[in-house]
Amino acid sequence: MLKPGTLYLIPCPISDATAPWEVLPAGNRAVMASLDYFIVEQTRTARRFLARAVPELRIDALEFRELNEHTAAGAAVEALLDPLLAGRSAGVISEAGVPGVADPGALVVEAAHRRGIRVVPLVGPSSIILAMMASGLNGQSFAFNGYLPVKGPERQRAIRHYERWARTERQTQLFIEAPYRNAKLFGELLQSLQPDTRLLVAADLTAPDERIAMRTVAEWRCAEVPDLQRHPAIFGIG
Amino acid sequence: MLKPGTLYLIPCPISDATAPWEVLPAGNRAVMASLDYFIVEQTRTARRFLARAVPELRIDALEFRELNEHTAAGAAVEALLDPLLAGRSAGVISEAGVPGVADPGALVVEAAHRRGIRVVPLVGPSSIILAMMASGLNGQSFAFNGYLPVKGPERQRAIRHYERWARTERQTQLFIEAPYRNAKLFGELLQSLQPDTRLLVAADLTAPDERIAMRTVAEWRCAEVPDLQRHPAIFGIG
Questions:
Q1: Domain B127-237, what architecture?
Q2: Measured by CB atoms within 10 angstroms of the end CB, which terminus of chain B is less buried, N or C?
Q3: ipTM over 0.85
Q4: What's the CATH architecture for A6-121?
Q5: Residue ranges of A 196-235 with Cβ closer than 8 A to chain B
Q6: pTM, whole model, 2 decimals?
């Protein structure tokens, strides 16, 4: 019987302004160059990333299958793994940063474990961990909460809940928002949070215009409003 | 007035068996080569890492100051930043992986923000994020809880609490243990957790003998016991 292939989790840059090998270890390159099958969030961006990072790859000879909100039904996810059961390895690539955390890539990883396929995560940029490093907040206990709820009352409840946990349990709380709502969110945070709560704003991480700022809410209220609108950002409360 | 220096957070490999540039991006190298002042968890290991990663550095000409459980008093931490206020940049290096998350490096980052010093996190291996990528567990909501309590009753309570949160709130729970207690912990987890709870064990991440396995507790009870004793490992419940 053929040994099953390996599912490699292949990070890409967070920012388009960053050259791939500035933020990805050289060790990833040999893995990427050895693969001809990729499970990707979006074919167009994955092709562009591979062409830029590994110019000797013949992109047209590679097979791409999409795994995203439109294709992530159970049977479709299982079918993505058929080539691996036949001994072929695959790379998972998400839209930005490390795959498998807060993107549909996790579904194929979960299925791979159930079917006894080896999973190998490669090193790359994660805005979650970069934000934690740069925060100075408690890293012995932290939670990433994904997107804030969109609707008013739940949104208010979530913000209050995160602040309460950060203060009473000393658990750092990270969350994100769709970039086009970042400016609105920042205003809401300054309004809702207590003056001595510490608020981290980390925008455009790894990009040339990366901005990381950590202030108490009282200090933020007197500071210049950061330009976050349409910039990917991650927020933290401690 | 002099512009203050920058505090760079410089990751190192997780495993001694890994060549630095296999798991660190080339972009970090220029930053490391430009610095002559390092705030480190342990001088001996930081010197060894720098000598291996950037052979052209004259290690004896560099200044190292230690920040660890023995030196982490408030005034001492502030004093580490005096050179930065005078315009010199510094690199923070922890014992393994990314600095500032679950190590004393966070203290100097926190002080840097208070004093208006720019903080720049560099990309590198984090066992937390590698474990999350490789788990297939919910990455839209996860918590890293650091070390499990050592004492029996609190330890049991923590394990039950993490399982309850993982199941009712769908928040993935990650935690670690001192490597010499890993085998004991694994046994306790199999005993305490419910049969259909999913348990991730990720040992020796990024090392040649990396092992990542994800099974339900019922499956683990029938599987071979992994060799975790004295191997750095991270555990996850989902």
A1: 2-Layer Sandwich (3.30)
A2: N
A3: yes
A4: 3-Layer(aba) Sandwich (3.40)
A5: 205-206, 210, 212-215
A6: 0.97
